[in-house]
Write a structure and sequence with these properties.
Strand order of the largest sheet: 3-2-1-7-19
Bound molecules: flavin-adenine dinucleotide
Number of helices: 10
Oligomer: single chain
Number of strands: 25
CATH architecture of the largest domain: 3-Layer(bba) Sandwich
Distance between the termini: 21 Å
CATH topology of the largest domain: FAD/NAD(P)-binding domain
Strand content: 25-35%
GO molecular function, one term: oxidoreductase activity
Largest sheet: 5 strands, parallel
Helix content: 25-40%
Cofactor: FAD
Protein name: NAD(P)/FAD-dependent oxidoreductase
Keywords: FAD, Flavoprotein, Oxidoreductase
Number of domains: 2
CATH superfamily of the largest domain: FAD/NAD(P)-binding domain
EC number: 1.6.5.-
C-alpha cells in the first residue's frame, strides 16, 4: 500500500472503467456515484421504449478490486482543501481526484423546454407516459443528431399508433455520408416518422413546439438537441472552456489543478490531428482505461486516440454503421442490414464487459 487515496466521482463509461482499472493497483480508491447499477447511458432510448436493458451491478464490475463504492452524489469540490463533499454530508479527502461526471441534456435557454419536455435522463418516466395511456398522441423529438435519431426510431417502432415527428434546426443526420443519411431517412420513413428539417425550435409549450419554419403541435415532446457537461467542474473553479468542459493536458490532467484528472464528456481532450474529442462513450471509455494505466504506472505516454466507427441504432431491427477515418471524418461507405445491426448490437452489449 502506498497510502494514497484516489477519489473517482462518476461511474459512467469513463469513471467506472477508470475506477476498476486503478483498483488493480496499490492505492485506496473511493468511487462516488449515486447508482447501484451501471447507467449504460447509450441505451436510454431503449428504456424509453420499454425494452429490457441489462445493467450490471457496480459492485460486480468492481469485484476483486481495491475500490469502495459510495452510493451518493458529489455536491461540492473544495479544490484548495482537496475534499469532495457528498450529498449525505461526508467530506472525502483525496490525494488524487478523478472527475468523470459526464454530461446532461442541454435545454439551450429555449423557453418552456425544461418545463414541458422529456429528456433521455427521464427515459423511464417517458416510457410510463407513453405506455400508460395508449393513444394516438403526437410525439415530437427535437434534435437531428445521433440521440434524436435513435430516440425517434425507437419510439416509432415501440408505439406504432402514435405519430412520431423528428424536428431539427438543420438537416437530420447532416454529418453522415450521403449514403448514411439516405439510409437513416429511409428507415425513419419506413417506421412512419415524419421529419421536419430547418425547424429551429424557439419555444416549447403544453401544446407542442413553436418553430421557425412552422409550429409542430404535440402532446409529448422529447428534447435531444444537445448535451452539456455537468456544471460542478466550472462551479468549483477547475479551468474549463466556453462549453464548461475541463481543460486538460495530454495526460488528461487539469491544467489548473494538477492533482485532478478529468475524463469523458466532462473533459475537453485535444488530440493532435483531430481537435477536441466529441462527447461519446466511444471516447470516454478509452480515456478511463488510459487513466487507470497512467495512475497504476503501466504507462507514462500521453493519451492518444483515433476514431474507429460511428454506429446508430434505428429501432431494434435496423442500424447504421458509418465508416470513418481516424479523425472522425466520414468515408462514403456504410454498413446496413444484418451486418450493421449485428455490429451495433455487439458493440452496445459488449460495453459493460469491457469496463474491467
Ligand atoms: C440516448 C443516448 C444514446 C447515445 N448513444 C451513443 C452511442 O451510440 N455512441 C456513443 O459513443 N455515445 C452515445 N451517447 C453519448 C454517451 O452516452 C456519453 O457521451 C457517455 O455516456 C459519456 O460517458 P461519461 O462516462 O463521460 O459520462 P456518463 O456516462 O454521463 O456518466 C456520468 C456518471 O456521473 C454520475 N454523476 C453525475 N453527477 C454526479 C454527481 N454530482 N456526483 C456523483 N456522480 C455523478 C452519473 O450518475 C454517472 O455515473 C448517447 C447518449 C444518449 C443520451
Amino acid at each position: 500500500m502506498t497510502g494514497k487515496h484516489i477519489v473517482v466521482i462518476g461511474a459512467g463509461y469513463a469513471g467506472l472503467s477508470a475506477a476498476a482499472g486503478i483498483g488493480r493497483g496499490p492505492d485506496r480508491v473511493t468511487l462516488v456515484a449515486p447508482e447501484q447499477r451501471f447507467a449504460h447511458r447509450v441505451r436510454q432510448h431503449e428504456i424509453a421504449a420499454g425494452r429490457p436493458v441489462a445493467r450490471p451491478e457496480i459492485a460486480r464490475v468492481l469485484r476483486g478490486r481495491r475500490v469502495v463504492h459510495r452510493a451518493t452524489r458529489a455536491v461540492e469540490l473544495d479544490l484548495a482543501a482537496r475534499e469532495v463533499r457528498t450529498e449525505d454530508g461526508e467530506r472525502l479527502a483525496y490525494d488524487t481526484l478523478v472527475y468523470a461526471l459526464g454530461s446532461r441534456t442541454a435545454w439551450g435557454d429555449v423557453p418552456g423546454a425544461a418545463e414541458h419536455a422529456y429528456s433521455a435522463e427521464r427515459a423511464e418516466e417517458l416510457h410510463r407516459r407513453l405506455a400508460g395511456a395508449p393513444g394516438t398522441d403526437t410525439v415530437a423529438v427535437v434534435g437531428g443528431g445521433a440521440t434524436g435519431i435513435e430516440l425517434a426510431a425507437e419510439l416509432a417502432e415501440a408505439y406504432p399508433a402514435r405519430q412520431v415527428r423528428l424536428v431539427a434546426a438543420g438537416r437530420v443526420g447532416g454529418w453522415l455520408s450521403e449514403r448514411g443519411r439516405a439510409h437513416v431517412l429511409a428507415v425513419l420513413d419506413h417506421l412512419g416518422v415524419r421529419v421536419d428539417e430547418q425547424h429551429r425550435v424557439t419555444a416549447v409549450t403544453a401544446d407542442g413546439l413553436t418553430c421557425e419554419g412552422g409550429d409542430v403541435p404535440a402532446e409529448v415532446v422529447v428534447w435531444a438537441a444537445s448535451m452539456e457537461p455537468q456544471p460542478l467542474a466550472a462551479a468549483s473553479g477547475l479551468a474549463v472552456n466556453a462549453r464548461g468542459r475541463a481543460l486538460v493536458d495530454d495526460h488528461l490532467r487539469s491544467v489548473s489543478h494538477p492533482e485532478v484528472y478529468v475524463v469523458g464528456d466532462a473533459a475537453a481532450v485535444d488530440v493532435p490531428g483531430i481537435g477536441e474529442l466529441r462527447m461519446a462513450c466511444a471516447t470516454a471509455m478509452p480515456q478511463g482505461r488510459y487513466l487507470a494505466k497512467l495512475l497504476t504506472g503501466r504507462t507514462g505516454k500521453p493519451f492518444s486516440y483515433r476514431y474507429v466507427t460511428q454506429c446508430l441504432s434505428l429501432g431494434r431491427g435496423k442500424a447504421l454503421v458509418q465508416l470513418i477515418h481516424g479523425d472522425d471524418s466520414v468515408r462514403p461507405r456504410v454498413l446496413t442490414g444484418a451486418t450493421g445491426r449485428l455490429v451495433k448490437a455487439g458493440i452496445v452489449k459488449g460495453l459493460p464487459l469491457s469496463l474491467r
